[in-house]
Design a protein that fits this description.
CATH topology of the largest domain: Jelly Rolls
Number of helices: 3
Number of strands: 12
Distance between the termini: 12 Å
Structural class: alpha+beta
CATH class of the largest domain: Mainly Beta
Radius of gyration: 24 Å
Number of domains: 2
CATH architecture of the largest domain: Sandwich
Shape: elongated
Strand content: 35-45%
Largest sheet: 6 strands, antiparallel
Length: about 230
């Protein structure tokens, strides 16, 4: 019995010590249930704009401009000026974007009006220690364009349905506090659809000095019980 108690106390010490060392734990940051600011007032304002690769980044309605298969690199940020009144200042002041955005975070629909473009702003809370290894996976019918804190990361247009992971971005490490993931969804006819998963590692908060004293005390208790058991 004494040996069992000693082992249990030792396990407790090791667990607390590991946590205090800042061991990171994986977490889901955004999924299809995550609320965000939502903008469904863009309509077809962007249709037929931003020529790229022999197509448009925003094809005309009902697939009249084709059904392109495009990968948009970060160096080719789209010009959204034709929808500026609707989008407001979503890339520069995402907490208060103006335009035709929802007044507060709402559930994000996974489908929307065919041929329209819609936009989303998600908040990501980096806590006190920040996040590491942040990965974003998307599925969309038809297209998606992604910014992080106003910086364009890339886009993707694909024919067909939704497959989570068809477009993936490594967001890297995010600092403490709030970051904003800004998404513009594109559709040009037939159907619309969307899926998202953003994951990252959350660092444990270092323990205060009083906790280290507790660890030291538990360590002494373990040693004393081992001597009695012997």
């Amino acid at each position: 019995m004494k040996i069992g108690k000693s082992i249990g106390t030792a396990a407790c010490v090791l667990t607390v010590a590991a946590w205090s060392a800042g061991v990171a734990s994986a977490a889901t940051l955004i999924d299809n249930t995550t609320a965000g600011l939502y903008n469904d007032g863009i309509g077809t304002l962007l249709d037929g704009t931003n020529p790229f690769g022999g197509n448009y980044m925003f094809p005309t309605a009902n697939s009249a401009g084709g059904d392109p298969n495009l990968d948009i690199p970060a160096a080719n940020e789209p010009d959204l000026s034709t929808a500026a009144a609707s989008l407001g200042s979503w890339l520069s002041t995402p907490a208060m974007p103006g335009g035709t955005w929802s007044a507060s975070p709402v559930a994000i629909p996974t489908s929307w009006t065919i041929n329209d473009e819609t936009a989303i702003i998600y908040e990501i809370d980096g806590g006190a220690t920040g996040l590491t290894n942040v990965m974003a996976d998307f599925g969309v019918d038809n297209g998606i364009f992604v910014w992080l804190n106003g910086n364009f990361l890339g886009g993707h247009l694909r024919p067909g349905g939704v497959s989570l992971g068809e477009f993936a971005l490594n967001l890297g490490d995010l600092g403490a506090g709030t970051s904003y993931l800004q998404i513009l969804r594109e559709d040009h006819g037939g159907a619309s659809g969307y899926s998202i998963s953003v994951t990252g590692d959350v660092a444990a908060v270092p323990l205060p000095a009083t906790a280290w004293m507790l660890i030291a005390g538990l360590g002494g208790l373990v040693a004393a019980r081992r001597r009695k058991a012997a």
